[in-house]
Amino acid sequence: MTLAHDVHGSGPEVLLLHSTVGDRRMWDPQIGRLGARRVIRCDLPGYGESPVAAEPADVAALVLELAGPQPVALIGSSGGGQVALEIAARWPARVRGLALLCAAAPSLEPSPRLRAMWEQEETLLEAGDVEAATELMVRSWVGPRATGETRALVRRMQQHAYEVQLAAADVDDLDTGWSVDTVAAPVLLVTGAHDLPDFHDVAAGLAARLPRARHVELDWAGHLPSLEDPEPVNRLLRDFLDSV
Predict the structure, then answer these.
(1) Rounded-to-10 torsion of CA 160, 50, 36, 220
(2) CA distance 196 to 153
(3) Minimal CA–CA distance to 135: which of 154, 119, 150?
(4) Which among 229, 180, 240 has a CA at the least distance from the CA of 30?
(5) Phi, psi at residue 165, to the nearest 5°?
(6) What domains lie within the chain, and their CATH numbers?
(7) Where are the alpha helices (DSSP H) in the chain?
(8) 14, 9, 174, 12: which is closest to 84 by C-alpha?
(9) Which of 50, 84, 93, 114 lies at a CB distance of 3.0 to 4.6 Å from 43, suitable for a disulfide?
(10) How far apart are CA 30 and CA 209, in angstroms?
C-alpha cells in the first residue's frame, strides 16, 4: 500500500502528518512557508485519498517509505503526532527533529470529558448521523481563533473520513511494540490552552521523559493551532527546523 501524498519544494526533507480530524489538506497553510525544504505530506489510511487498509498495516513504516535515505524532520498533529513519535522511536537514526502539535501518545489516559466525547461520537455514527458527529468534532477540536473558512475545511475533511471509514470493513490495529524511550531527536511539543487538558498532560509527560524535548503552550490555541492561526505556528516550526 502506498499512501496518497504530494511533494513541495527542495532541500532537507520534512514529513507532515495530519490530525485524525483532517487529512493532508490541513497543511495547506504550511506549504511554501517552512523555508527552503522538501515538504512531503500524506494521507494516512482511511483519510483523504488513501483508502482504508485491507489488513493490519504498519502505518509508521508506510509513512517513512515516502522519505529519502537522509534523516528527515517530522511534524505531526494530534493522531498524526503519535505516528511521528512512533517513527522517531523505531528508527531514531532516520529522524533529525520531531515537532508534535497537540499530539496523542501511548500514555494518553482519556479524561471523563474526552471519553464522553468519544462515546457521543460513537453513538451518533452508530445511528447513521454523520453530519451531527462531524459537527461535534468541529466544535470539540477547532479553537476560537479559527475562521469560518477553516471550520468549513475541517468539516469537509472529517465528514469525508467518516464516509470512507464507515464504508470499509473493520481492521484491527497492528501492534508494533515501540517505546518513546528510544527517541533520540530534538523534540518540540506544542499545546493549546483552549484544547482538552489531556493533550497538555501528554506533552508535559513527554517533556519530562525525553531529554531533548521542549514544551511550548500557546495561550490562544485549541487543538489545531497550525490551522487556527498559521503564521505564529509557522514561525515556531521554521525556528525549530532551522535548529535541527
Answers:
(1) 30
(2) 21
(3) 154
(4) 229
(5) -70, -35
(6) 5-109+169-243 (3.40.50.1820)
(7) 59-64, 79-90, 112-126, 130-141, 148-166, 197-209, 225-228, 230-243
(8) 14
(9) 50
(10) 29
